[in-house]
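Subject: DUF1349 domain-containing protein

B.,
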Amino acid sequence: MDLDLPQLPFSLRGYGPDGHWSHEDGVLTGWAGARQDRFVPPTGEALDPAADAPRLLGAPEGDFQLIARVTVGFAAPFDAGVLYLHVGEREWAKLCLERSPDEPTVCTVVTRGHSDDANAFTVDGASAWLRISRTGSAFAFHASADGERWTFVRIFSLGDEESAGAALVGFMAQSPVGEGCVVTYDHIEFRPNWPKGLRDGS
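Prediction pasted inline below.
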């Protein structure tokens, strides 16, 4: 499916399983089905070729920040709402609000052949603001309780200058061990620049 959001200067396209994506009154909603996820175990286990999760992605140009408040209908461990970026078949990253495993937690995954997995900090409630930024081949992840003051989570490179510049970014829902969950995204915002400071709360 294709979806145009008035907040974004690029169109979104659905990837993976059907996420039943909808957008109404400024709120984007998606559904993850049972045991849907994108993760390549670093222990060397073979990736299940059927492993996937609903994604809604587009291709912004140049430097950018993609911001959304993410709310997750937590039902099982590792249910999550995600801001996602995709550079290649085994080169992608996730910034998640995840039940990990008992508390809502900001988590990140960067996949370069295999995935890493890191918890940043727990949050109160089922909502958090997430932000992905890009300049050149560098990406930054931030999270916030109020959408005003941002906590630095991670900076990394992914792919080369050309592939990073053509990265797909957007939204994903996952329920790796559960029976599914619903995720909503509101206060969606696009900024055509890199943050002024990564660690100063801006």
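The CA atoms of residues 87 and 163 lie 6 Å apart.

T.
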